[in-house]
Amino acid sequence: MLHPFLQQILQLWRQDILGECLAFSKRRKATVSFLDPDDKAASGFGVSGDHGPKSSEVYGFVGSITTVVATVIFFVWAYVPENWLQAIGIFYYPNKYWALAVPTYAMVTILLALLFYVGLNFMSTSPPTSLNTIFDEFSREPSTFIPSREGDEQPIEPISDIGINKINDLMFKNVK
């Protein structure tokens, strides 16, 4: 049930839109022709018959417009006083408590999910003192390659793990 003023505006808007559509159709005699998408000679170019936006583009556009409209409706509901909403004919809406509660619940849920994820990762990994953090069944020792001559091109060595002793020498060699 809308306010009488809004009903009058909607009625005038409908009449204006319908009037323009009818006037446009009377002024112009439209001819409709359908092209065969397989007929490449009709277009003059050898292009594919697939024209128009992709479905992912349409879904993205509709999703973005829906998000903007929903956000505007949410902010109007959250910040406009109740007597103003009732003055324009909006009588049924959720309690304003939910304007604060839903975002708060969502943020707390996301925070708890992140903490839960980090906790699961700590539970599934080996402790730092375990040798499994250094070696496992997939560890590969570096292969030794002796070049034949100095001027020859060198092949790329296969992938391998750097030993912990070499890492310690490189990082802590000069530290005493």
TrEMBL record:
Membrane-spanning residues: 58-80, 100-120
InterPro entries (UniProt xref): PIG-P
Domain PIG-P: 56-172
A GO molecular-function descriptor: glycosyltransferase activity
A Pfam entry, by short name: PIG-P
Subcellular location: Membrane
Membrane topology: Multi-pass membrane protein
Keyword vocabulary terms for this entry: Glycosyltransferase, Membrane, Transferase, Transmembrane, Transmembrane helix
Organism domain of life: Eukaryota
Protein's name according to its UniProt entry: PHOSPHATIDYLINOSITOL N-ACETYLGLUCOSAMINYLTRANSFERASE SUBUNIT P-RELATED
Main location, first listed in the record: membrane
PANTHER family: PHOSPHATIDYLINOSITOL N-ACETYLGLUCOSAMINYLTRANSFERASE SUBUNIT P-RELATED
Keyword Repeat among UniProt keywords: no
GO cellular component, one term: membrane
